[in-house]
C-alpha cells in the first residue's frame, strides 16, 4: 500500500495541534492532521476548558439566586433537568468541533481520524476505521495532550470514582461528593456540583488550595468555598477507597489516624499525565524527562530533528493557550523562521467563584528567587463597579521592578478576573511601567479601573484609596 | 550625582588626570573647574555640571580616565535639606554624611547609567530580559541582535524600533571604520609603532624608558593614520623673500609698538588666507564614506608649534578675513597659550590647512606629513642667502625653501603647482599697502 505523503504531520487536534496545523497551512505547507476522536478540539474542547466553563456558567444562576434574595429579588427552588443541561453543553461542543472541521477543510488540511503510532522518525501508522494507513512526513508535531491521573489505589473500576472527564458528564447530582485534590480542576468542578446541590468536601494534601497561587489571591476563593462547600480539609491524605454498595468508602488520614467516610461519588483531581503511552516514540529519537514529559528546546524541537512537540506532552503549565502558542512556534521553526518560546508570558485563569488570574512573575516566585519587587494592590471594596455587582471580594495587584517601575507580573482575584488579566498580559509583554497603566484612562464604572488604581497606588495617588506609596 | 568624564571633543576618548582641584567635602559651584586633564594635545579643565558638595573623588592624579568614567560624586543642592546650604560652607562633613536623595529621584534606570559608554549591557536585578514589545523581540531574533546590548529610550528602559535602528547604525559605523582609528589611543602606539617582537635594548647598553604621554601617543597615532591612509606628493619650491624681509624690517618696529611681532609666519598666513580662497581644493577634505569632496567656506589654518611637551597644532581662525596686524596678534597669542599648555581642545580643532615652519630651528627642505582629514600642508624651512641668476647676473638673495605635501586623491599635481606658485608670488611681491598699520 502506498503511504500518504505530507510535508507536515500534526498528531492531535487540540488547541496546540489544530493551531499548528492551520498556521502551517496558512503559510503554504501541505498538512495532515491525525486525531483519534471523532470530534476535533482535543481535551480543551471535549473534556476540559469548554464543557467545564459551560457548566460553571449554567450553574452560576444557582449561586446568584442565593445572593439575590438579600437584594430584594427572590426565586423559587430551581428545577434542574440534567438531560437538558448536558444536551445544551454538548451542543456547544458540537458547534465548536464542527467549526474546527470547517476551518480545516477550507485550509485544505487533510484530517485523518485514528490512533497514531510512530513507525520511525518519518513514518506514522494510523489505525483508522478503514484499516491501517501509513503517513510519510517531512516534519511531525506531537500534540496529543494529557489525561487526568487516576492513581492505582483509587482505580476501582467503579464509575462512582470519577476523573474530571466523568464528572463533566454529570451522571447525577450526588448528595455527597468528595473531591480529592484542591487544585483548579477540583475547585472548579466542586463549585459546579455545590451549586447543583451536592454536599461537597474537598481534601487537599498540601496546606493550601490552589497551590502555586499567591496566598492573597487564593484567600477570597478559600473564603467563598468554605461557604459554598460543606468542608475543605487541608493537610489531609486519602489512604484508600473501596466500593460499599451504592457508595464509596474512603479511608482518610486525619491526625495520623485512619477514618472511614462514605460518599455517593468521588472526584479524583490530583493532576494530569501525558498521553504518551503506546505512541511508538521508542521508534524515534524523541526522549522524555524523568517525569515522563517530552524534552524539547525553545523551538519546540525534540531530540529527533524531524519531530516537534507542543502543549501538555511537554509538561509545565498544562494550558490550552500555551499549547497554541507553542504550535505556532514549532511551525515557524520548521519554516526556518527565527522563532523561540522566549520571554513569553503565559497567563493562568482559575474559574472558581471568584475567579483567580495571574501572569508573569508572582509574589511567591519573587520571594523564592530573592527578587526585589514592590507590590501595588487595589482592593475591590473601593471599586464602585464591584459593589454594584455585589462582588467586593476582589483584589488586583501589580508586581513591579522598583528601579524601572516596570510591571513584571499581575494577579487578580474577583468576578471576571479571567477577562481582566488580558490587560496585565499586554502590560508585561510590552514592558509597560506602572506609570503607563496609571496614565491610561480606564472606563468607569468597570472592574478594569482596579488595574489603573493599583498602578496609581504604587505612586501613592490612587483616587479611591488612602494607600501608602508602593504598599 | 556622579560626575563622569564628558565627551570633550570628537575623537577625544580620555586622558590623564594631571590635577585635582577640589577635595572631598568641598563645595563646588556650577561650572567651577574641579579637575585638570591632559587630553590629546592640551591640558584642559573639567567644569562641574552643577553646584554641590563633593562627596567622593573617584580618581587619582596621574590616573588615566576615559569618557564616561566617574570622576567625582557631587551631592547636589537640590538634594540637600533647605537648612543645609549656608551651614555646608563651614561644615562640609555634616553635609557629606547627609542622607542620600530620595530613591525615586535618583533611582537610575539601567539606561541612565551608561549613556556615554559604548559597551552597554542591560542588567535587571529581577533577572528578566530587557523590556521590549513582542514585535521588537521578534525583529531582534530575526536579525540575531542581542537586546541586552540595545539601550532602550522609553520609560523603564523599554526598547523601541528607533533604539534598535540606532544600535544597528552604530554597529555598521563600527564595522566600516578604518582599522587604524578603531583601537583606543592607548592601544594605538603598541599596535602600530612597536615591533611585533619585544626587543631587549638593554642587551647593548644602559637604557632608560619613558612612558609616552597622551600627547606623544596622539601625535604618533595621527601621524601613522596620515602616513598609511593618504597617497601623498611632496612638491618642492623656493621663494625669494629678500624684498619681503626688507619690508618686514621696515615695519617691524611699528608692530612692536602695538605689542605684536611681525614674523614670516604672519606673512605666510596672510598669503595663504588669500591663496586658499582661490584654490578651494587645497582647503577641502575628502569624505570617504560619502565619496564626496567637502569644500569649506572658512579658512582655519593650523600652525605647528614646538612645545616642551612636543608638537601641538593650534588653529588660527578665519585667516582669510584678517589683516596682517590681526593675524600677527592672534598668532602671537595662540603660540603663547600653546607653549603654556593653556590651549582649549576646541582651539585645536577645525583646521582646514596646516603650516609647519622650521625656520626658527634652522630647517631646510623637508617633507611634512599631512594632518588628516586636511588635504595639504606647507612645510617652511629657514631662509638662506644663496646665489641666484637674475637677468643673467648672479645675485645673492634670501631663498626660502618650501614644500607642499598634498593628498593626490583631492589635489592633482597641476593644481598644487598653481597653488604653490600663487604662494610664491605672494611672498615675492607682497604689497606694502597690506603691511601698513591702519
What is Rg of chain A?
24 Å
CATH architecture classification of the largest domain in chain A = 3-Layer(bba) Sandwich
- Greatest contact pair? A-B, 27 and 27 residues
SSE-based structural type of chain B: alpha+beta
Strand content of chain A: 25-35%
Helix content of chain A: 25-40%
Q: Specify the CATH class of the largest domain in chain A.
A: Alpha Beta
Description:
The complex is a heterodimer of chains A (471) and B (438). Chain A has 471 residues and is an alpha/beta fold. Chain A has three domains: 4-146 and 273-334, FAD/NAD(P)-binding domain, CATH 3.50.50.60; 152-270, FAD/NAD(P)-binding domain (3-Layer(bba) Sandwich), CATH 3.50.50.60; 354-458, FAD/NAD-linked reductase, C-terminal dimerisation domain (Enolase-like, domain 1, 2-Layer Sandwich), CATH 3.30.390.30. Chain A contains 13 helices and 22 strands. Chain A has helices at residues 15-26, 42-47, 49-68, 82-106, 164-167, 184-196, 215-228, 320-334, 363-368, 384-388, 417-430, 434-438, 449-458; strands at residues 4-11, 31-35, 110-113, 115-120, 123-128, 131-142, 146-148, 161-162, 176-180, 199-203, 231-233, 237-244, 247-254, 257-263, 265-268, 272-274, 307-309, 348-350, 355-360, 374-379, 395-401, 406-414. In chain A, strands 1, 2, 3, 4, 5, 6 and 17 form a seven-stranded mixed sheet that branches. A five-stranded parallel sheet of chain A has the order 8-15-9-10-11. In chain A, strands 18-19-22-21-20 form a five-stranded antiparallel sheet, sandwiched between helices. The N and C termini of chain A lie far apart (70 Å). The relative contact order of chain A is 0.11. Chain B is an alpha+beta fold. Chain B has three domains: 1-107, OB fold (Dihydrolipoamide Acetyltransferase, E2P); 111-189, Dihydrolipoamide Transferase, CATH 4.10.320; 230-434, Chloramphenicol Acetyltransferase. Chain B has helices spanning 84-90, 92-96, 103-106, 110-113, 134-143, 161-176, 188-192, 214-229, 242-257, 264-278, 324-339, 413-428, and strands spanning 2-4, 14-20, 27-28, 33-39, 42-47, 52-57, 64-66, 70-76, 232-240, 285-287, 292-294, 301-303, 305-307, 310-312, 315-316, 353-357, 376-380, 384-390, 393-407. In chain B, the strands form five sheets. In chain B, strands 9, 12, 15, 16, 17, 18 and 19 form a seven-stranded mixed sheet that branches. Chain B has a four-stranded antiparallel sheet with strand order 1-8-6-3. A four-stranded antiparallel sheet of chain B has the order 5-4-2-7, with no helix packed on it. The radius of gyration of chain B is 27 Å and the shape is globular. Chain B starts with a strand and ends in a 10-residue tail after the last helix. In chain B, 33% of the residues are buried. At the A-B interface, loops of A face helix 5 of B.
